[in-house]
Write a structure and sequence with these properties.
The complex is a heterodimer of chains A (459) and B (932).
Chain A lengths: L8 H8 L8 H5 L16 E6 L14 H5 L15 H4 L11 E4 L4 E4 L3 H4 L5 E8 L5 H10 L9 H9 L9 E4 L23 E3 L20 H22 L2 H24 L6 H6 L8 H15 L4 E5 L10 H25 L6 E6 L3 E7 L3 E5 L3 E7 L6 E3 L1 E2 L6 E3 L2 E2 H11 L9 E3 L2 E3 L15
Parallel strand pairs in A: 1-7, 1-8, 4-12, 4-15, 5-6, 5-7
Antiparallel strand pairs in A: 2-3, 4-11, 8-11, 9-10, 13-14, 16-17
Helix pairs in contact in A: 8-9, 11-12
Chain B lengths: L1 H12 L6 H18 L4 E2 L4 E2 L8 H6 L16 H6 L16 H12 L21 H4 L25 H12 L10 H13 L13 H9 L2 H14 L18 H12 L4 H10 L8 H10 L15 H21 L18 H12 L1 E2 L1 E2 L10 E2 L2 E2 L6 H26 L15 E4 L4 E3 L3 E3 L10 E3 L9 E5 L6 E8 L10 E7 L2 E7 L11 E9 L6 E5 L8 E2 L1 E6 H15 L12 H15 L4 E2 L3 E2 L6 E4 L7 E5 L22 H8 L5 H16 L20 H13 L4 H9 L13 H5 L12 E2 L2 H12 L43 H4 L19 H9 L1 H15 L4 H10 L5 H12 L5 H14 L1 H4 E2 L1
Antiparallel strand pairs in B: 1-2, 3-20, 4-5, 6-19, 7-18, 8-11, 9-10, 10-17, 11-16, 12-15, 12-18, 13-14, 13-16, 21-22, 23-24
Helix pairs in contact in B: 2-5, 8-9, 10-11, 12-13, 12-19, 14-15, 16-18, 20-21, 20-22, 24-27, 27-28, 27-30, 28-30, 29-30
Classes of the chains: A alpha/beta (459), B alpha+beta (932).
Amino acid sequence: MNPTPLITRRQALQTAACGFGSLALNGIATAADLPRGLHHAPRAKRVIFLFMHGGPSQVDTFDFKPKLQQLDGQKLPFAPAKNLDPSSTSQAKLLGSPWKFEQHGQSGLWGSDLFPEVSKHLDDLCVIRSMQSKGQSHGQAVCMIHTGADNFVRPSIGSWISYGLGTENADLPAFVSISPPATHGGPRNYGSAFLPAAHQGTTVGRAGKLGKDATFRFLDASGDSAGQLRKLDLLQAMNREHLDRTRHAPIEGMIQSMELAFRMQREAPGTMDIENEPDHIKALYGIGDSVTDNFGRQCLLARRFAESGVRFIQVSTPNVWDQHSNLVKGHTANAAAVDRPIAGLLADLKQRGLLEDTLVVWGGEFGRTPIVQGANGRDHNPQGFTMWLAGGGVKPGFAYGETDDFGYYAVKDKVHMHDLHATILHLLGIDHLRLTYRYAGRDFRLTDVYGEVVHGILA
Amino acid sequence: MHRTFTLYLLALSTAASPAADDLAFFEAKVRPLLIKHCYECHSQESGKQKGSLLLDRKEGWSVGGDAGPALIPGKPSASLLIHSIRYEDEDLQMPPKSKLPADAIQILEQWIAMGAPDPRTDSLASAASKKTIDFTAARQTWAFRPLQKTTPPAVKHTDWPRSDLDTFILAELEAKNLKPAPDADLRTLLRRLSYDLTGLPPAPDLSETDDPSAYVDHLISSPQFGEKWGRYWLDLARYADSNGGDRNYTFYQAWRYRNYVINAFNRDKPYYQFIREQLAGDLLPAASPDQRRDQMIASTFLALGPKMLTERDKEKLHLDTVDEQIDTIGRAFLGLTIGCARCHDHKFDPFSQQDYYAMAGFFRSTEVVMGTRNGCVNVASWVEQALPQPEPAMSELAGKVQRLELAMRLKVERDFMKKVGGKMSLEKLPLAGVICDEADAELIGDWKQSSLSKNRFGDHYIHDDRRQKGEKQAIFRGSLPETGVYEVRIAYPAKANCDKQVPITVEAFDGTHDIVFDQTKKPGIGGLFEPIGRFRFEKGGRANIIIRTAGTSDYVIVDAVQFISERDIEREATALAMANGTRSGDPLLTMQSEDLEKELNKQINALKDAELAMAPRDARDAGDIHLRVRGEVNQLGPKVPRSFPSVLHSGPAPAIPAGSSGRLQLADWITSPNNALLDRVIVNRLWAQLFGRGLVSTVDNFGAQGEKPSHPALLDHLAAKFRASGGSFKTLIREIVLSRTYQLAAEARSPRTLADPENRLFGRRSYRRLTAEEIRDSLLFLTGDLKLEQASATALTYGEDLDKPMSFDTESRRSIYLPVARNNLAPELEIFDAANPEMVSGDRPLTTVPTQALYLLNSTSLQKHAATLAQKAYAQPDAVTWLQQTILGRTPSPAAAQRASTFITSSPDDREKALADLAHVLLASTEFLFLE
């Protein structure tokens, strides 16, 4: 009998289980096709995306090219990609990989000695060697991998997933980005664009660095909790009286969100406190070793968020992988910082049974050219590169797609970034064609008008 | 050789019906291939016709898709289908996922060489055909038709309306058997007026005011009016002080536009003039330097969008910039999503792709993005121009800007020169334009490489060795960044045994030219190059230079080809003379890349607080542009004359003087009285700002996907009045806020809330939350800290980009003056739904998220404000009541007063801390945050 559409407390608790989004009253009301539930049975419940900002080289990591090694120093026998830096097109000479490759495990997948620890897990990985993306520069490609658009402002994949699935834990956000990039679009990469603001990523840390006491914005568990409770009581009494007087739905929204915030303030610090983890777990992630400590903490935090019901967790390196020069020095240091933490994460997820329904995604915004840039670097290469997946619903110990003999262009079973996005949604039980949001006269999708699920990698 | 022969024979047979053998070949080899690899996306059966192409019938490939016929019988290499399956072009590869095996490609090549025999006779018409847009019908719909003559309807309660506006509202209420709510009490009304007209709470001495009309006049003429309403316009204009996108460079000059907008509202600048200035202010005539200055600043509007400055394909960058401009103008001014028609006709609304490119021509002819921001050839910058000022300062500043642009142009040029890798002769030669070395050329026949002569460009040159004359050719395929006239030059080390009659063919935009050239003549330019003529080329168009050997007997030498724009020739001559030491000039001209970069950064830094405007200008190569098939930059369709959307304009395309962008014509058209949509959209926006909901509730979308108007006659009535007033914001706003409808009370429960829960009939007042700016400004206002003077370049001191976290805790000017950093908004504004400055935001979303609650609970700045208020309260006789009255603007109810007192007396802390806690709670309360 309420004249205005108010949410009852019980409804609020129910909807809260579907995510913060239900509290974004006005925003949700405009959604034309609000997805409730899944389109099909999911193979994964959550995603951990390990973002290698800057673009690691495929031919130095997981895409072994004997012919590139053989013809090291010779001219590329076909035209290099358009829009390369002048310093790489002037000669277009092949640069063999300075790293040694070996086959690993039962699967015999190739891995270089840049990633000795991750290579031990190759039997768990599904390596896509035929990735393609849009954007020859970082700005475009970074936005492309996160939002499916290289030029315009679109919601990030985590926001779409939050919008589609909500969170499993009412006291935590559905989408957390740990140390997200501050440049190349920065917050756009965890932003909700035209989706309701509740779906934007909640961040902790910044630009690949996770400070020791990093926490969510405005969250403060350190204060005088008795005093705060006293204030909260008075505030909520005033607000409820105001609600009675006005029957205005957004005021009820504020009242609920105040309670949710208070619960989150209690819950989140515990989730984010990695100090209580046992020493052998910390060691597994390389925490305590100055080389791996930062990324190890990020990965362990990601696991804790995954356990607590966060849907999409991103972990980012700083923007360090961009080796236009000094390939050996740069890639060696970058890989050393993340190799053990990533291997630790995979092992830890596996031993807890979490890898079953957690999809781990590894990669950068693009790969690098097999031709040399300047004296000893590699330029950007969205034409063909490698990403790998593990866990929730993908074939383990499996390689998909191929680049040409030199690892330059993807030529067989190409997987465009749109296809990867469609596949990630598919694994979560979402049909990428049906997860839409109406805005400015159009139904928008993460995959725009593109994208096909890569059935060949599904387990 | 063999293939050419077969091809010739078979071409003869294509006219006749396909021979039985040919058909057998089709059935055995071709049809299965097509079914397996192509039908999934190109057949009626699959329901997919990607790129509008069908491959399941002969007519499908012969008519072809968006890019034209898919194949040309008899000519495999000229056929798009073969081009795409050979993966020759990064942008057009079919099938898209994997290249076909070599034998499959060969079968299709063979089939086409045979003349593409194909027995599949289904017609295209029998497949679902493309819809066409019925513009005549569309022009009659409510949004697009001319303003309708309206008379206020008859009502029963004739004593209720104060104006025609009220009569329209009352009539709809009475039609639903409803009565309007009671009038709001005076205190509530004055608070409402104060926030709606100035964005601030009423002054404390308000109790003496009892005449709302006089109060409205007072508020509307205060400078705070423009700050409140200007902020709304800035939401529409996606105003920001930084680029966002990929590089968050600081827009040092954007603030001038912000202040222009505020002043325009305060001076009640006629809306039509306001629009004209923003679209074409840089081109409009001006009666005074001040007017010129104002107009130039206004045109910053076009340049404000976020851009992917590092996009390496600069034509894509230009077209993306154009797209952003069309999208912004379409939605902000016309409530239309024209931007949707970039890749195909609009799915819902009457806009064709043709319409889109007709509009795009205006903006592609407008220069916004250019040069390099940081010296890297991949990172573009934007146009800035000197503002009018007294001489000699004016010439001096204009000279500095010109010199900066020269440095940018030289830097980009130098970096491109590196591409040709010449190490010997190039280092000291400041050549200009685009140069293709012989290594870039497509060679036919066997050429000999040599590096014998020192007078060469790059590491080598080649010669024909006086053999196989006629067969050998060198084809240079140039690609020019701008349309215009270029001098074409060739490089060759001149020798006595070179041929005197070398035939050269130039394939330019204006046709094919055959030239005979004497290679014994010593090259004049830098000792390397010699001109062969001047020709007109189109950006991205054909620019081929073919050096032949037919009819020659002596050596023909090929070293390099240079294309130099006419306007660069003199500059290059000066530079070359400087390099020789025969003339002096600007040292920039002969600087090497690294020095240019340093110089560039120095100049950008020196100009950041100069008197410049971020104003666009007409491009040198202004003109109509090509439609882009599927929106792909490199897939050119037909050229589209610049014009206005067909649904709003049925006349011929406007006459646009050569060399001009046509923005003046666009500005004239968009503001002409025939364009009723412009008035409908803005009037609806003002209404929505004052009532919380538009007469058309989707304020940014008047298309088919938007809502229909709740009161169409009232909308047209207000639009006509607005037009008649010459586009006066103040007149319309005053009329609305003095209406009885505006002055109604809000209600919790009544027959109206039951019958009309969303208040579509405006029979009562809707509650609204304060905006982000209103919250922050009110806090400063209440503590007495708010500084009311207008600010200027507030982003100036934050450096080259606005990526670092910014805190404004100590800043006490109104929120509109805080730097707006894209991707990095002030947290206290962002969490309360400040407009996202990356897109048009005519209707800010209202969200309720826990971050807001966390902010209200924990923000140190909110607690600081609370403490300041507590200190003020401390001195008052009744501190508790004073706090409630000051913050909430009303005397508390006895129950509320009692609760507050108990909160103070039961506090374990001292009285000042307890008062600060109370102030904190009041500031965090919904009663403070929501307006009745």
